[in-house]
Amino acid sequence: MSRKPVSARAMLLLIAGGLLLPIVISVLLALAALLGAMGDSTGGLVVRYLALACGAGWTILLICLILVLGLNSLGDRDETGK
After folding, report:
1. What's the pLDDT tens digit per position in 12-47?
2. Where are the domains of the chain?
């Protein structure tokens, strides 16, 4: 019986982050558009940059999730090589 290299809790956190971050990005972009329409261009710009940072974080999270899935699939191999 082989042990998984990455815990199930870490995998669950990565999956949850991968599902929730696009929602957060969408809400931030909508808020930036609302602020821009209300005449607060500085606030809209700040919120857009925050959405951009979340987008970069989401990209990093997805890359980490792919690496973790690869590590877990290597941990599933049995010792006989079959």
Report:
1. 999 999 999 999 999 999 999 999 999 999 999 999
2. 8-74
